[in-house]
């Protein structure tokens, strides 16, 4: 039985048009090949073409649709949409200069696999690009956003407020759009990629959707995607992007910080 409020919007209803302020795609990686070695031993080989990527991952390989966006100098948001794995998608944040990489692998699970949890799960894997000297910080979970309240303008019809409550949860409310007046608290994971660069992810409870966003606080831009189940039961991978405005910051006394 659906326990959501009667006017609660489905994933596809709120996501429509939420990519109006997204950065444009780039062909900067087209014609290049890269091998990523992850900390857990996984090895992923990629060869980029204009609008697709050939990948090899252990015994699996294929050519799939890819979107590449330069979200900071030499830093790319790479979204691989698997034709043969419609319930899965991989987002790669990679810097071709520092050779640092973070993979966010999103999986739409069956309901019985996610009792008491968000239905869409995410796996995080730091790694490096083979073939050169590695520099810069290792991507790692971060508490830096705790206490921040910020506004995200995805389009004239999509404005949301985020309040980062702890290392595990954030609160959101819709200020402009079809979800106006709606809000919730959902599970989050945040990684720091470099100075003023963060990967923020959330996994919703009320509807089957998870999101991955790259925050560039130098340019005050957010670039990301949603993966989830639409109102009619289909899997959908939706692009998104926003302008960021920091509204306020809450500071905590020693010993009273959130988890």
Automatic annotation (TrEMBL):
TM region positions: none
Keyword Repressor part of the UniProt annotation: no
Keywords assigned by UniProt, alphabetized: Plasmid
Domain Molybdenum cofactor biosynthesis protein F N-terminal: 7-107
Keyword Transcription regulation: no
Domain MoaF C-terminal: 140-248
Highest taxon above the source species: Bacteria
Protein name from the UniProt record: Molybdenum cofactor biosynthesis protein F
Organism of derivation: Rhizobium leguminosarum
Lineage: Bacteria, Pseudomonadati, Pseudomonadota, Alphaproteobacteria, Hyphomicrobiales
């Amino acid at each position: 039985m659906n326990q959501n409020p009667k006017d609660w919007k489905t994933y596809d209803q709120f996501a429509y048009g939420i990519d109006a302020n997204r950065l444009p795609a780039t062909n900067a990686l087209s014609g290049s090949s890269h091998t990523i070695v992850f900390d857990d031993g996984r090895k992923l080989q990629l060869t980029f073409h204009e609008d697709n990527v050939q990948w090899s991952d252990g015994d699996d390989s294929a050519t799939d649709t890819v979107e590449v966006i330069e979200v900071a100098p030499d830093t790319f948001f790479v979204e691989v949409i698997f034709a043969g794995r419609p319930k899965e998608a991989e987002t790669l944040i990679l810097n071709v200069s520092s050779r640092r990489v973070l993979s966010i692998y999103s999986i739409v699970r069956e309901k019985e696999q996610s009792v008491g949890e968000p239905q869409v799960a995410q796996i995080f894997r730091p790694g490096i690009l083979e073939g050169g000297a590695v520099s810069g910080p290792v991507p790692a979970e971060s508490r830096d956003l705790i206490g921040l309240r910020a506004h995200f303008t995805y389009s004239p019809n999509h404005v949301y407020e985020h309040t980062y409550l702890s290392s595990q949860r954030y609160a959101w409310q819709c200020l402009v759009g079809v979800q106006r007046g709606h809000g919730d608290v959902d599970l989050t994971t945040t990684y720091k990629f470099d100075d003023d660069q963060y990967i923020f992810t959330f996994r919703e409870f009320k509807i089957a959707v998870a999101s991955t966003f790259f925050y560039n606080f130098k340019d005050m831009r957010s670039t990301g995607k949603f993966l989830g189940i639409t109102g009619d039961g289909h899997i959908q991978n939706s692009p998104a992007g926003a302008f960021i405005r920091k509204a306020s910051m809450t500071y905590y006394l020693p010993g009273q910080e959130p988890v």
